[in-house]
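Give me the 3D structure for DUF1501 domain-containing protein.
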Amino acid sequence: MLRFLGSAHKFCDGATRRDFLQIGAFGAGLTLADMLRLKTASAANTATKKQGSKGQKSAIMIYLPGGPSHMDMYDLKPDAPAEFRGEFNPIRTNVTGVEICEHFPLQAQMWDKLACVRSVVSVDEHSDSLVMTGYPDRVNSTANHPSFGSVVSKLRSGSAGAVPPFVSLRGMSRGSEPGYLGIAHRPFTPGGQGNANLKLANGVTAGRLEDRKNLLDKFDDTRREIDGSGTMAGMDAYTEKAMEMVTAGVVRDALDLRKEAPKVAERYKGIEQFLTARRLIEAGIGCVTLSIGSWDTHGQNFQALKRQLPLVDRGIANLIQDLHDRGMQDDVVTVMWGEFGRTPKVNSNAGRDHWAPVMSALVAGGGLKMGQVVGASTAKGERPKDLPLTVPHVLSTVYRAIGIDPSITFPNGAGRPMYVLDARDPVKELMG
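Predicted structure for DUF1501 domain-containing protein (432 residues):
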């Protein structure tokens, strides 16, 4: 087993979060990512068929690691004392009464296609677990709740064809794990060498590939005899899926940005993950996750945001406009957030520290009600003023937007039925 490491992010707790890609080998001379797994037999097959028939909408989940400052992005407080309001000024959007940060001019021009929830209560921990699963890391460490994308994978892997249901463009993390759904529903995590593994090995023709597949079948007959646990059945599915993906080339083509029109590629220069996400969604992926920037700004908060906010602005504006131009706005829901907000009061290092009492979440598409802000924080941005909401409220809304009932249950390792979310009420103001 080989492990390919990506970029590392070191946060204030001293821990390093490093994206990684594990590459495993199987027969037929092909090497594919460990994330290329398919469904295995489970007690939830009936639920899978029922849910899978509800539609095939998709989700893009954008994670801002480190905790972005709500006060300097979507919830500015121009009337607050200087030590709270910070350096940035609000600008008007194309929706009357809604203002956002001056470093978001592109989003301001298209706010009728966007919405923001400004009253989300979070927890103080550097982990994507809460926003990707609905449960904080300290709970997930024992309960093993699955990520949003893994739930999509579980419900749709049977009809995914030549594409994996769940793709992570930011590697593996605690929040991308499948938990009790099993490793078959880990994300496909392309990157670097992983992309090269989505093609036939050197010198292997389609004819030779079929010969090798037949040879594999003979080996499998023997291997099944020594494996009665069901593990081999999962590996058979994995091998079958890998073969299908290699020969079809759908994902490989989606990841090849050279196939995009040069003018479009230029618009996404420096923010290519947003373009890749859109291309993957067009290829039929059910859930794509990506991340951008580093937001643990205990010091020099405004300097860091001056560099990062324009990139986020271009990424969101290009992505959402492209989806609209392709008529996909109601079929794709996008959510962008981090693990918590940041302190309303600027510290002595011109930074903002962790702040779990309130944060913001950007939402777009999925047939939800756009052109608004939902909820409000207090005059200094310290806590929800009205409509306090939790991360599961937002996740429940996103699940519903793509046709998944968050009250569905799956058996955990002990056979106990577990809800996808314990808190399942949606954000009613967003429901179209």
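The CA atoms of residues 11 and 296 lie 6 Å apart. Let me know if you want a second pass.
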